[in-house]
Specification:
mainly alpha; Hypothetical protein af1432
Amino acid sequence: MVEQEIQQKKERYLRLLASAYTLPALPFIIEEVNRVIDDPKASAANLAEVISRDQALVAKILSVANSPLYGIPRRVSTIDFAIIILGFNHIKNIVIAFSLMDSISSFNTEIFDRQRYWVHSLLTATASKRVADDLGYHVSGEAFTAGLLHDLGIPIICKHFPKEFKQIQELMLEKGLSYRDAEIMVLGMDHQEIGRILVERWNLPQSLAEVVGCHHQPSLAVEHKNLTALIHLTDYMANKFSGGNIWDDSNVIDTSILETLRLGNEEYLEGFINSYQSQLLDQIESLNIF
C-alpha cells in the first residue's frame, strides 16, 4: 500500500511539473557567450565585453579564478585575465552553470538558505574541477558545471512546492528520516529525479542529466560513470569539510566509485579525501561573495 501511495504521489507531482510549472527560459547571456565562443575570429576581449555586462557574473567568475583549489599563483583581478587563465571552454561552462543556478535559486525564504546552498554548490563545483584535473580526466570543465548544478532539484522543490518542502523538513526533524527518504514520502520522488527532469527539459547534455539523477547512487549511472562517481565523491567531500548540508545529508560513500575512479581501497580513498582538507577549508573561507 505504501509503494502504491508513493507511486500515486510521484505521478501527481510529475503532472504538476509537466503542466503547472513553466521552466524559465535559458538566460540570454548564455546565447551571447556561445555566439562569441563559436566565432573563430573572437578574442578574449570580445568575450570579456559580453560578460562584463553582468557585473554579478563577473564577480562570480573572478571568485572561481581565485579559488584556492585552482592554485593560480597571482591574484586574478580582471575578467580579461580570468578568460586567459581559465580558457574559453571553462569560462563557457562557468557562465552556463552560474546563469542556470541564478535562474532557479534567485530567491530567499525562511525555509531556504540560499547562501548555504550556494556555498555547498560552489564548493562541490571547484572541488570537482580540481579532482578531475588531478585524476587526469578530460571532463574537468563538465565537472565544474555538474558539481554546481548537482542539487538543482532542491530549490525547484522549495520554490514551486513550498508547502511540501516544509513537510520534508518536518519529517526529518520529527521522524528522523533522511532528506531523500522524506522527499520520497512527500513527493513520491527525490530531488535527483526532479533535477534530471529539469535538465532534460532544458535539452542540456545527457552527461549532466545522468549526474544530477544519480549523484547519490553513482553505481546506477550507465553512460557517464566517471563523471557521476566524481560528483558523488566531491559532494561527500564538500559536506565532510563544511560541517554538513542541511538539506542533502550525503554522508555515505558508494564504494562502487573505488573501481570507477581507480582509487584502490577504502583506506586509500580516505587518505585521498583528507589530502584536500586544507584547500577545501580555505575555499570555504573565501566563499563570502553571495
